[in-house]
Specification:
Blueprint: E1 9-20, E2 23-34, E3 38-42, H1 49-57, E4 64-69, E5 72-73, E6 81-84, H2 96-100, H3 102-106, H4 111-124, H5 140-152, E7 158-162, H6 170-186, E8 190-194, H7 198-204, E9 207-211, E10 218-223, H8 238-256
Parallel strand pairs: 3-8, 3-9, 6-7, 7-8
Antiparallel strand pairs: 1-2, 1-4, 4-5, 9-10
Helix pairs in contact: 7-8
This protein binds adenosine-5'-triphosphate and magnesium ion.
Adenosine-5'-triphosphate binds next to strand 2 and helix 1.
Length: about 260
């Protein structure tokens, strides 16, 4: 496990365990994430990735261990963190634009000041034409894109994303990945990102964590030392594909684990 200097440590997960009744979802997970580091988590379906992310987000209680953000124990949701849940949770009575602006209201910031930014994000996600629509008028992938915009609106220092691109078509998915990489490059933040796409993880991350079957433990950790900024052409390169092969082997092993 990589050692991170105390001064640059943002997120600390230490010996965390999670039981849902008799079901042990997470056995013993420890993970440190440094300031502005982009860390992805890969692992078999049902191994406990969402559970881990939701505990970090402060919406699910842990059974044992410690989770802290900037040295403060996580005791509940924090408005200064951007979260994209696996199932987009939008407020059904609010328009797309009002859903994106919701964190601004929670933070009691000026709505007027952020409306332009909200429209920019919606344009980036190619759903600005639907700003006045209600969530039920959108497809699943469109809802997912709204929840990504909402997570980014207040430019949070920490971003937690649970398979944010899973409902998107292949082309949009790649485009959103490149956009996320660009946003991260321009305006550094600490990101914890769950995905099932090995290529997406390798493209976006500084470090990829591979989890084993439930109860989750970390079985492998790979530093992705590819130059930044990264563009889509990188995905054709041999160094990139050698990381992909290495991660694939680790995941195959994790299934057997
Ligand atoms: N609220 C809950 N109550 C009881 N069991 C739960 C609950 N949430 C998750 N689990 C169980 O915990 C385990 C881990 O679930 P989790 O959603 O964290 O997996 P995951 O790694 O995110 O899977 P996927 O890749 O399919 O999203 C599963 O066995 C699941 O059945
Ligand atoms: Mg999940």
């Amino acid at each position: 496990m990589e050692r991170i200097e105390a001064a640059s440590l943002v997120l600390r997960v230490k010996s965390v365990r999670k039981l849902y009744g008799a079901l042990e979802a997470i056995r013993n997970v420890s993970l440190d994430v440094a300031t502005n580091e982009f860390v992805s988590i890969l692992g078999p379906s049902g191994c406990g990735k969402s559970t881990l992310l939701m505990m970090v987000a402060g919406v699910v209680d842990k059974s044992a261990g410690e989770i802290s953000i900037n040295d403060a124990p996580v005791t509940g949701p924090r408005p200064d963190i951007g979260v994209v849940f696996q199932q987009p949770v939008l407020l059904p009575w609010r328009t797309v634009l009002d859903n994106v602006l919701f964190p601004i209201e929670l933070l009691k910031a000026s709505r007027a000041k952020y409306t332009e930014r909200a429209m920019e994000l919606l344009a980036m996600a190619k759903i600005h034409d639907f700003a006045d629509h209600l969530p039920r008028q959108l497809s699943g992938g469109m809802r997912q894109r709204v929840s990504i915009c909402r997570a980014l609106i207040h430019d949070p220092g920490i971003l937690l994303m649970d398979e944010p691109f899973s409902a998107l078509d292949a082309i949009t998915r790649d485009e959103m990945g490149v956009e996320l990489s660009r946003i991260w490059q321009a305006n550094r933040k600490t990101v914890l990102f769950v995905t099932h796409s090995i290529r997406e993880a390798a493209f976006l991350s500084d470090r990829v964590i591979v989890m084993g079957r439930r109860p989750a433990t970390i079985v492998e950790e790979v530093k992705i030392e590819l130059p930044r900024p990264r563009d889509i052409a990188l995905m054709e390169s041999e160094p990139f594909n050698s990381y992909v092969r290495r991660l694939r082997k680790a995941i195959e092993a994790s299934h057997a684990h």
